[in-house]
């Protein structure tokens, strides 16, 4: 099964993708994570995209489509969870073509609905484990009192450079201008399944499970 998690920054796509990986043995393909990795390892591409990402703008379709194409060829698993990809109509068309070329298709596009006020609150309170990427939130899921990640025991936590109000404004505008048209695109392709992204993590996971047919 191949699915897309579609929604604005802070909607909980990464958190839900990790749960789906655990529960269903699927493979999360997050272009945001891939780009951050490219930055950390200092590749030429990573250096090129750093300023764009920090400002909250989208990197070019060519770069992210290339990243996904590479992963689709090498990764193996019980289907893919596309997290943060596609983000433009060009990327959506390219994904359809790449899947078709591999004899595959899309089973569902989960649209995670969250209002903007909740997004600002979530994003400015967010941190992740430096070792495994587990996502924490100062309000809804604080770092455990012993200072150790509940998933891997790691003790270093990071805040993303683009998780501030200024970048978030740009990220939201990019979402509404370039990514939200995908809601209509996938609605008409017949794949769209809206879920309420505002609930507790387990409630949202339950809704996604139901949308995927249990
Ligand atoms: P994310 O971790 O998904 O919030 O992505 C962080 C940043 O990486 C975004 O604000 C963009 O600058 C860049 N990015 C991630 N995925 C894409 C994509 N599919 N298309 C363009 N830019 C992307």
Please give a structural write-up:
The chain is α/β, with parallel strands linked by helices and 214 residues long. Helices cover 49% and strands 15% of the residues. The strands form two sheets. It has a five-stranded parallel beta sheet with strand order 2-3-1-4-8. Strands 6-5-7 form a three-stranded antiparallel beta sheet. Helix 2 crosses helix 3. The longest helix has 15 residues, at 165-179. Adenosine monophosphate binds at residues 9, 31-32, 35, 52-53, 56-59, 64, 84-85, 87, 91, 162, 171. Residues 9, 31-32, 35, 52-53, 56-59, 64, 84-85, 87, 91, 162, 171 line the site of adenosine monophosphate.
Give a topology summary:
Blueprint lengths: L2 E4 L6 H12 L2 E4 H10 L3 H12 L5 H14 L5 E4 L5 H13 L6 E6 L2 H9 L1 E4 L5 E3 L19 E2 L6 H15 L1 H9 L2 E5 L4 H11 L3
Parallel strand pairs: 1-3, 1-4, 2-3, 4-8
Antiparallel strand pairs: 5-6, 5-7
Helix pairs in contact: 2-3, 4-5
The structure holds adenosine monophosphate (AMP).
Adenosine monophosphate (AMP) binds next to helix 2 and helix 3.
Main traits of this protein?
alpha/beta, binds adenosine monophosphate, 3-stranded antiparallel beta sheet, 5-stranded parallel beta sheet, 214 residues
Low-confidence stretches: none
The strand line-up of the biggest sheet is: 2-3-1-4-8
Quaternary structure type: single chain
Helix content, binned percent: 40-55%
Supply Rg. Answer: 16 Å
Total number of helical segments?
9
H-E order: EHEHHHEHEHEEEHHEH
Binned strand content: 5-15%
Bound molecules: adenosine monophosphate
